[in-house]
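Bit of a strange request maybe. I'm writing a small parser for structure token strings and I need a real example to test against, not something I typed by hand. Could someone generate the tokens for this chain?
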Amino acid sequence: MTDLGAVSALIVEANPSMRTQLRNMLNTSGIAKVQFAVTAGVAVRKLRDNRFDLILCEYHIGDGQDGQHLLEDLRHNSIIPLSTLFIIVTGERQYERVVSAAELAPNDYILKPFAADTLHDRIVRALDKREAFLPIYSLIELGNAPDAIARCAKAEESYPQWSTDFMRLRAELYIASGNANEAQRLYEKILEGRSIPWARLGLAKALFMQKRYAEAEDTLQSLVNENELFVDAYDWLSRTREAAGEIESARSILSNAALLSPHRVGRLRRLGELSIEIGDHEEAEKVLSEVVRKGKYSDFRDPEDHVRLLQAQLGRGDTVQAEATLRDLERSMAGLSKTRSCSNLSSVLLHVKKGNTEKAAEGIKALFSEPDNAQPLSLKLKSELARACFATNMDQHGAEVVLDIMRNAPDARTLAGTQALLKEAGKAELGEQLAKQMDSEVKDLVAEGARKAQGGDYEGAVHFMLSAVRKMPGNVHVLFNATLALLKYIENCGWNERFAAQARDLMERARKQDPGNARLPALTAFYYNLLKKYGIQP
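Reply from user aminoacidic:
Good idea to test on real output. This should exercise your parser:
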């Protein structure tokens, strides 16, 4: 049993009397190391600097934030480890919505009002369960997915009371490792016992990774039909429709999800992007205005949101409001790394809309004169920059941007969008030329890296491929081959923690870009075998 005296806790609660009450309850249980956060932003900053065993979070925490969204931000941005317990405190009226099968679920929910004994028992139960999972969490943090999967399988027998939880984690590890087939098999096994919403969602994700979109859609559609509050299923259904090229339908589904869960900034942002893509600038402006407003309360605010809002306003022909958005961008986002590029791009788009090609060209030159050459911008905004370049007859700059997009395109749809952009600008032939150039560049880079490794220059191969990653940070082929170069160095030259960490990071980036890639399981296994070879243990 965990020593409660050693447990550190963070209470996230805006109400001062409730904070005091919760602290007293924790103290009564033997938990004396207690800190407070009165907003989600304060919580994020405290959690960046400190590691807590327990987070006790009120569902409604003000400023358009709730406990579920805070948890998702913390997990998605890797601010808290898996070992940190997250318990949501909620009232009865919100309970159904809170527990409606979120993809990232808290460790527990406590329904108000409750007594100190109830809180004590729930915390002890959660800590006992955590103890059983800690060895697996350590393996995951080390990047040792194969051993973590094996430990999960053994734990299912050792801890029958949590066998389903271990199976769920095992399936999620298969997904993270790019092994969609095994994940599918395991989710199907779980579903043989009973129909669990999160398992059905996991099955749909595994099918999605295999590009079996019709089957994934059937599963997701049945989920939302049965549980209209299951917003994560809406998100994945939208992604599935988008992958199948049904953009209008994807937008409509995401709009329904946003009505059910109006505070999730990432969902609203994607809804705004899709609305711009189909030309519904009025809806895009409404949604993106909310994203910008909410961003002011968030530690994860992004200056690109202002640019998207400005796009929507220009799409409606409202240059006056677009100018106001640009001023707000420069004022409220000052000091962030992307702000200068976003400000310059916004100015360019505004001048293009007004027909002032001279000033637009000056803005484009300013963007290209920046040290990072607009590298911080997302691919979607780089597409807008390319469009502006061609609109102002700055074809060489436009070609540079398009080539950069092609180098880092995560999927065929992005490449197709780039070709459509060039066709729209009357430069379809240029698209073919750039595609051939990009393909040749990637092949040459990979071949040179392989040549160095085959010649025994493993360090040279690493440095060469890492420079290729800096040149093409989103290119999956380059990411995979850079990972391979790092692992080959370790295999032949000895364990190197820095290189191992870089390999883990690149594998994770490749997984996010292309989760179903057939090379992922093999690379993961290679990394795992190196851990065994050198006796590296958590």
